[in-house]
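Ops channel
N.P.: pipeline sanity check, posting one input/output pair.
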């Protein structure tokens, strides 16, 4: 039985909303990077998400259950969430850090968040646009801040589901199994077949051996 995990930091006075942000898909050879953003009112009762964990510590089934919980809370009007994506082509052209920032901004736009009313908490090395003057980057925030954990789950589940759909278009790569991450089977497929339209060519250079894209 999990204990209720309260927010590590109190919500700042004067802020109407709290936003949590995290990303998924920084390391795969294929597919987009995703950034999840969850917004709640400052008096949100985090007991309603008691037991939330870092998405990397959960099974796929558990993540799906938490995602359904997110959807239920959204339907109730208790929170809102959005996921922004940056494609493999954007990652190749601009690099992973700018691609993540672009996806992050896209998620915030979807939330229609007013920077003057929101405190933002971000995992790892992430930064929000400078208009959000009240923001805190928290190392391992997905393990200590429930609002960030929720954002991580949104980002991970929506990215995984996208990769499952793309697996039907590119069945030879097994995306339904590894979601684009560099497993041995995925690396072998790239060596054998080259890269697809959704591969990050810059990540695959050592595997390509001069093969053409498919």
């Amino acid at each position: 039985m999990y204990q209720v995990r309260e927010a590590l930091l109190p919500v700042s006075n004067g802020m109407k909303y709290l936003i949590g942000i995290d990303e998924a898909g920084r390391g795969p050879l294929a597919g987009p990077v995703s950034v999840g953003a969850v917004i709640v009112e400052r008096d949100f009762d985090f007991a309603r998400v008691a037991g939330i964990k870092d998405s990397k510590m959960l099974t796929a089934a558990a993540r799906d259950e938490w995602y359904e919980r997110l959807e239920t809370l959204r339907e109730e009007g208790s929170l809102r969430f959005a996921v922004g994506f940056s494609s493999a082509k954007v990652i190749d052209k601009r690099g992973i850090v700018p691609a993540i920032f672009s996806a992050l901004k896209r998620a915030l736009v979807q939330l229609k968040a007013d920077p003057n009313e929101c405190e933002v908490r971000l995992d790892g090395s992430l930064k929000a646009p400078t208009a959000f003057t009240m923001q805190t980057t928290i190392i391992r925030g997905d393990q200590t801040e429930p609002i960030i954990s929720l954002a991580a789950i949104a980002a991970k589940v929506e990215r995984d589901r996208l990769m499952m759909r793309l697996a039907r278009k590119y069945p030879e790569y097994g995306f339904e199994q590894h979601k684009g991450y560099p497993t041995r089977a995925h690396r072998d497929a790239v060596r054998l077949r080259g890269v697809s339209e959704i591969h990050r060519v810059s990540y695959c250079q050592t595997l390509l051996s001069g093969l053409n894209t498919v």
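N.P.: looks fine end to end. Residues 60 and 157 are 8 Å apart (CA to CA).
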